[in-house]
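Regression report. Comparing outputs from two consecutive submissions.

Submission 1:
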Amino acid sequence: MAGGAPIGNVSTSAIPTGRKAFIPLVLVTILFFLWGFAYGLLDVLNKHFQTVLGLSKLKSTGLQVAYFGAYIVFPPIGTRIVQRFGYKVSILVGLILYIIGAVLFWPCAQFETFGGFVAATFVIACGLSNLEVAANTYVTVLGSPKTASFRLNFSQSFNGLGSFAGPLIASKYFFSSGNSGNLTSVKYIYLGIACGVFLVAIGFFFAKLPEITDEMMAEDSNLPTKPLLKQKHFIGGVLAQWLYVASQVTVATFFINLANEDGIHTDSKASQLLSYSLILFTVGRFFSTFLMRFFQARYILGVYAIVCTILCALSVGLHGLSGIICIMVLFFFESCMYPTIFTLALQDLGGNSKRGGGFVVMGVGGGAIFPPIEGAIADKTSTRIGQIVPTVGYAYLIIYAFFLAKAPIPSTDDLESK
């Protein structure tokens, strides 16, 4: 089977490829690390705030609602920005919002206001969502369409590295004996994040990024640009992204709680296990990137979705270490899902690639839906029972991968109309 997932039959006469695309891809890949780091910290903050601020599991998911709710609200704005001003300006806007949100964590920690943390998290997520609208689409269209899934999976692998670094740092500083009962470490970590992102923003300000317009995509494509609502692989992909992110976020959000129920009684140890799980996630993404040189992306997605569905279902019934191991292994198999769904959904969109990318990024908003549902179930029964919720999301991905993800073959009339 051929590898990759082409986004369209593009001649690439105007779109940079090869060496011309290398430096821009390296710069944009840095962004994937940044929001992986932000997301990795989020899941640990959830449990830290439960302890320090005395929050219930359900109320603590306000962070997830704010973070992923921003992906529902801001991507339409981000799509307009990238369409009107281009990728570079869009990336700079996202980085500036990221910096503002990170700086706001200082007064929130000083006054221990959870509402303030929710608002600051929303600002950070608006910036991250804008970066995703620009960066995911940019990596997808920058280069040969035949290797779109390969490129995006490789770049997103650094997202996994950032996600791993977040909980590892948190396990040392948030839950250490001196900081386990206060928010002092939160102030300094997010101030450091703001400084780091500021340096990245300076780099992008002076960098030269080749611009790729909708007109270039439409002109270089051998296919006509069809309405988005008439393309089932796109519609199914948006739903797949909603349900995947909802499931992934729910599993990660309640990992520490689940580990506590299954015999890991210290938050520091559970946070370390989450960090190890994210190592598996990162390794899995590099491994799936390798597989995409030989197998079609949608088949890899389908097989991984089957495994994730089984592992998540097993975690409902299994107790102790076996249940924890199921979820840790699940991280490995869910690793390729976000970038693979993204590129599958954007196949053959041509001049609608930026607009379509905005809708797929909105799918990240699914992370605001499932965690409160599992939180309510966990408060009344147990976190293990709540694992039924993400199991449903993984199951849909099986249907999408095998039955909806393949873009329709263009007819002779389509090619003639082009």
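Submission 2:
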Amino acid sequence: MNTFKLSALDLATVRKGQSVQDAIDRTVEAAQYIEDLGYERIWLAEHHNMEHIASSATAVLIGHVAGKTTRIRVGSGGVMLPNHSPLVVAEQFGTLETLYPGRIDLGLGRAPGTDQITAMALRRNNLNTSFYFRDDILALQRYFENDDPTEKVRAFPGEGLDIPIYILGSSTDSAHLAAELGLPYAFAAHFAPAMFTQAAAIYKEKFKPSKYLDKPYFIACVNIVAGESTAEAKFLSTSLFNIFAGIITNHRRPLSPPTEKVIYDGIPEIERAVYGMTACTFIGDKETIAGEVSSFVKSYKIDEIMTTNYIFDPGKRLASFKIIKEALN
């Protein structure tokens, strides 16, 4: 029996020929479905200035998904903290936790979740906010934990609420910070696997127990495409690889139907770049997923696997979630 938890990451990706509303409805459908399957949590990711991603107002979408479900934890994977005032984040997530007690997670990242021009618009031309990531996390914790009625600035709602904070990252810097602060750590291996091995080792070796966590808690976010057969899974996975090719070439497209060959077939530079971004991708039938993902978890002592799902067909998308659950638990 595997002991690690299983969760999902969603970006409310817009499918070809459909609308933003359709994408949000699809996210809700996935959340309800995996809740019934017994997944631990679903996280929504903050992105900006991306035409085919509908999760930019992350806290609003978290509230919508939490309101349409009953048990599954719902959170941010993550809120890009340098884009926001810690006080505003404390108030937003304090409100969410008040509305949906015991179900809200606050995952925090340092990247802008967009391009540099958009980051300047978000941060009002102050790109130095990323250098205060650690300080902003500590400020957030103080808002949640404050018990001094004379404090000049307080977070309502937020104060006195137990909202778990997770550090998100794709580099060794985030691993060091999560270890130093004694917080759970989620690594974005689904698109930036290059430093995964090193970051995992640093986090576990450097971890300092805290009042939040007595031992390391490590989440690996990866791409998993499961099908009734490995051949079907490989076919379905072309939608995922074609999206990454669009990111690399700056020709972003909506989530599109699978293709017989990836759209960059025969272009070595793009092939290498896509492989570099998707090295932590598992594709296959139930037996293949069970073997490969379980081995991955054992090798890196992972506490929780968080899977993406970029399958175009609605029925195949939900079936993949079920196959993954059956394979891993």
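Expected: both submissions complete independently.
Actual: both completed, but the second showed a warning that disappeared on reload.
Relevant detail on submission 2: The chain has one domain: 5-328.
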